[in-house]
Each structure stands twice: as structure tokens, then as C-alpha cells.
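Dock magnesium ion; give full complex structure.
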Amino acid sequence: MARAQLFGIPVSPGIAIGSIRFMHDMGQNEQRHISPDDALQEQEALRTAATEVRASLAQSMANVPEELAEYRDVIAAQMELARDPKLLNAALARIEHKCICAAWALRHTVEELCELFRSMDDPYLRDRAQDIRAVGLRLRECLTGRQPRDRSQSPSVLTAEDLSPADVMEMDLNGVLGIITVEGGPTSHTAILSRGLHIPALVGVTGLLENALENETVIVDGLSGCVLLGPDEEDLARYTARRDEYALWENHTRRNAHWPAEMCDGVRIRAHANLESADELDNFASSGADGVGLYRTEFAYLKGELPSEEELFREYAEVASRVAPRRVVFRTLDVGADKMLRAQASLREPNPALGLRGIRFCLRHQGIFRTQLRALLRAGVAGNTALLLPMISSLGEVQAVRRILRELHEELLAQNLPHATNISLGVMVETPAAVMICDALARECDFLSIGTNDLIHYLMAIDRNNRHVSYLHDPLHPAVMRSLKRTIDAAHREGIGVSVCGELAADPCGLAILLGMGVDALSAAPCSVPGIKHMIRQLNAVTCQELAHSILMSTDVRACRHMAYEKLHQSLGPELAFHTNSLLHQGQP
Ligand code: PEP
Ligand code: MG
């Protein structure tokens, strides 16, 4: 195969060199008409395939390591789908009515269902298309007689249209050098899973299946986002050296993860971790983070049944006590937009990202909110905790929460239940409205936390799921830069601390600018914390201030990007290439 270069979205850093291994059978789709007499036989083949798929998923579930326990739920949902009448009955009926083979009937049914789910407004339901496709691929492989995967195969780069956690669990994890897929975004299962496993990965690689060949050598650059198919000798030598340098650098940052994040001129920054569940506490411990800057509490709610106060209390108390004496900032329930409660689906909001999400949902459904707040207040005695309110757009929302907290305090007192009194309360600044009233919010709260992931989307008026406008997602846009500066200054004028907990905190350029603007703390995924701390130790406050100042003075995004690159290259040297550098490379057309 001739040398070819493809591009994707880097979602897990590092470099992998290995041979391509297709996760799924990429053979021709079977497309066979049958006689009516053969329909029963084809239907039976499909039922047998469904039984086999459920058994293989159960096997994958058993292989899920403890640190990835949350993926058991995803696999369990796929097992349910493999018996779902919507999928199976529709395919069985199609065999009979259209007189076509089982594989063909299945493909039509899966495509139809995926299309239906993809067109839904509700992002929770939209994501189900990913699971339907995954189950469909497994069924197809059973029907076409694919041999079960040999888990002992030599190390390789997993290549697929899309991967589900069950697919990855089916492999010998030590044998997966890298992952490349056509589908998926930065928050897809593939992305989260590969980061958790420290496997270099790229998603959204266009042209992958048309160009890649099984067993062909491939280089996956999870830093710059490039895939090299059929590399030549020179590529191999260059990337082998780069891979080894990166591994050394990563080991070094992890070994020194517990050193303080202190800039060359003595300015200290707190580097915190963002956690999604208590399962990540081991990752937190090895990350060297100074505390948990954002504990996302949605996970317990997205499993179906609403969790009880006792369940939540146990989860929060475990996290608080294991992180103590360091602080955990628990963000109250932020459902809506890309994270939906099943009950919300019935609302059928035309645009959920601008709908009843975060604090709006909680103030409307106070029963759910009060249960969570009671659990959080009670867990407050187990460690050092704070509360953070998402999606705030008015002062009234914060005042309403303060009133509820006072009532709950009286209630818990009357019930003789130990709980935190005077718990620190902060708000997420992630809407343009919050930026405009950040001075008033800073007077009402104990700290601010800037959620750049949402803030950038809401400032630029772009839908997270709309590829056509994704080019506008540019953190260096003056509207974003000015909003950050305005918020940081307002917090400091009111004498409170301000942190940034969106992805921007892990980007070298974003990080340097934020430090230059005077942010007090940064919070990012545990795997990014050692690299962030290492980077902070090589920067100096004055250089960062100069950079932030020049960027705030300019409206030319290209020039800003160039300027940031120059400054960072001076401070970090070749190490700059070891960060994903998304901000330095992206840009408007
Ligand atoms: C953010 O919006 O930046 C943030 C940290 O919250 P989430 O990604 O959970 O919406
Ligand atoms: Mg957010």
C-alpha cells in the first residue's frame, strides 16, 4: 500500500506504531434474495446470532477491569438491545416479507433504527444509535460466520468504523497499541475509554476504511491528529524516536506529579482534577492533583432509576473522605443538553442545550434537587467539600439555592443528622449572562469556576452537535478571551478565588493565557494533571502576563495563535509537541 496520510481528532495522547487490525469484519455485505421456504431458516439463524451476541457481550462484561467498572452499564444496555423486539422482530419480519437473507434484513433494520435515533432531539436517545450500530455489527459478524477474536494476537492498532466498550474488552488490553475510528468525538466512549487506558487514539478519521488494509503498518499520532498508512523507513525512524521521547516525558511528568505547580518565578497555582465517579479515585491519587476541582454528579442519575439520598450520601462521603484533607467541589446535577435524564426525554424540548438544563432543571424539580443537596450536606462532614451550581444565568437562581440550603439545614438539624454548616458555594460561569453579571455573582458566592466547554459554545451561539459550525469553536476568539478576563478580574475584585474547569485548562496555549490572566486554579481530567503541573513549572508568570495582554489587545485570531506558539515554544521547547495543542492548530477557514 502506498504511503497515505489521514487526519482525525486526537482524543488520547501518545504515539502508536503497529499493524492494523480491523475490529469488525469489513467483508462485503451479504445481499441475497431467498425463496419463501427458506425464511424460517434465516430467521432461526438471526435468533441464534442474537443468543451468541448476548453470550459474547456477557464475556466482555466479565473482562471489564475494576477501574473501568462504569462500562459494565454500557455493555448491559447492549445486551438488552440484542434482545430488543424493535430490532429483532423488525428484522425477522423483513426476512419474511421481503424474502431476503438475515444479514441483509438486519442491515436495513439497523440503518433504519440508527437513522431514527440520530434524528432525535434528545441527545441521550441520539447516543443510542452508537449502541444499535455496535450490536448490529456483532450480529452481522455472527451471521457471516466470523471466527471469535483471538485475544492472544500480536499487539496491533484497533481500527473500526466505531468501537464500543465491549469491543475493546474483547481484546487483550496489553495488545492494543492504538485506536483509530471513523466515528466518534472527544466525548465518545472510544475517547473516554482510550484516555482511561492510556492508549493513543484518534476519532473522526475520514477515509479510514477506504484506505486502510488489515495487517498494514500504521502510525497513530495522538498528539497532532495524524494517521500515516504504509509509512516509509524515514517516517518509521522519526516516529519511533518521537514515541520513545514522549514515553520518557510522560513517565517523567507522572513521577514528578506530586511536585507543586509553581512557576519559575515562584507563583503557585492549584492544579485540580475533574472526576466523573468514585471509580476514578485511584487515578486521582496518582495524578498529583491538589484537590477535586469538579466532581460531576450526573453519573448516578443516568442509569435509569433516580438514586436515593442514602446512595448519594455513600458516594459523596466516600469521595470526600478519600480526597480529604484536600477539597472536593461537588457540582450539583447538570442534566439536560448532552446528558439527559430519561424523564426529560418526555419534555421534547426543541433545543435542550438552551432548555431546562443544570440549575434550571433542579429548581423546577426540587424533590430531586433537595435529595441531592441533603446528601451533599451530610457528606460534607466526611471531608472538605464545596458546592458548585451549573448553568447559572441569573442572581435569583443562586439566591433560590441559598434559601433551599437554609431550609435543608433546619430540616437536618431537626432530624439530628450531622451535616456541613456554612458550606462554600460557587457558581459555574458558562453562559454569556453569567459573564455579564460576574461581579454580582462574585458578591453572592464564595468562588467562581469557569466552564469553558459550554461557555465557548454559548458565546459563539454554536450547537455542540452541529459539524457545520464546529469551525467557529475557537477559544482564542476575542469574545472568549475577554469573557475569561472579565470573570477573573471580577472574582479578584470581590476577593474570591476563580478556577477554570473546562478543556481549555489542559491546552498549553489556553493554560498559559489563563495563568497570565491571573486564574487561581485549573482543573482537568486526572490523566492531564501531571502534564499540566510540569508545564506550569516551566512557565513564568511575567511571560504569561505579556502573552495574555497581547492577546487581549488583538482581534486577529491568526496572529494571536502565532504569537502564542512563539512564546510557548520559547518556554517549553520541543516539549510543546507532547501536548495535544489543539488550540494552536485549530482555526477558522
Ligand atoms: C464546562 O462546561 O466547561 C464544564 C466543565 O462542564 P461540562 O463539560 O460537564 O459541561
Ligand atoms: Mg458545562
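Observed: The chain has two domains: 4-249, 267-502.
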